[in-house]
Amino acid sequence: MRTYILLFLLLASPAFAGEDGTLSLSPAVVMLRGDHGQSTTQTLTMVNGTSRAFSFDLVAQDVVTTDGTRTFVEAGSIAGSIAATAVFSPNRVTVPPGQTVAVTITVTLPPQTPQRAIIALFRGTNTVMSGKVPMTASLGALLTFTVSDSVELDAAPLAVRAQSATANLGVTHACRNAGREPLVAKGVMAVIDARGALVGKSPLTSKRLLPGESADFGGEYGGELDPGRYRVFVTYDYEGKTLTRDAEVVIP
Fold it and tell me: How far is 224 from 245, CA to CA, in rounded Å?
């Protein structure tokens, strides 16, 4: 049985780990700003750190949001397809062991398209073995496009998990990109005691959302709290804007 494995690590270099090394693709994310009708050419670099050659076909897919979740669709299958404009040079590569290959992709943002992202996909054409299971290694880079200042992040009320004997205080809430453009939200959690004094802060993992995409945001406070009443503030900075949510919690 042949298994197709597709790896997208969008906050670091995408990588496929074999038994004797790693394939990696960079950059993992290309964030572009411009206008409809404009073209851009970007360079993607594949590094083969394994002991065997890998071959890839280069294709583009549109990234769309359905019911708050990213999905990938074939180029040209939706109106305003950005992926349909993609031209790779070359469009097929073989990367020898220990070598690096660079590929360029040129895309044009169609007039009035509502689409804002594509995947530049290195689709593997040869099979590797993982134990007794044959797999095809494919890696992709995300390209996002921003054409306006219509950026907006919606967030549900903050849910707080109280500190326990086995876990630190934690927060979570559902967030949604309610604008027309991609955004990256960088968050920090601050804990304030009953007297209004800052107890401490903890950074939260950055999140990237495409228009219409939803995700659970949150994280854990990095320290242990003494018994008492606290207010927890979570603040996200995104594309020059700020969103804050807060909630009270009692530590017994």
Answer: 21
Question: Which sign, positive or negative, has the C-alpha torsion 72, 75, 79, 80?
Answer: positive
pTM value is 0.87
Determine phi and psi for 215, rounding to 5 degrees: -160, 155
Q: Which tokens hold the place of 159?
A: 């849910």
Q: Which domain holds residue 69?
A: 3-146
Q: What mean pLDDT is predicted for residues 35-51?
A: 95
> Do 138 and 160 share a domain, yes or no?
no
CA 212/CA 183 separation, integer angstroms: 11
DSSP 103-149: EEEEEE--TT----EEEEEEEE-SEEEETTEEEEEEEEEEEEEE-SS
Q: Is residue 219 a contact partner of residue 170, using CB atoms and an 8 Å limit?
A: yes
pLDDT (tens digit per residue) in 105-158: 999 999 999 999 999 999 999 877 666 777 778 899 999 999 999 999 999 999
- Examine the domain organization and report whether 172 and 88 are in the same domain: no
Structural domains in the chain (count): 2
CATH of the domain at 49: 2.60.40.10
Same domain, 129 and 160: no
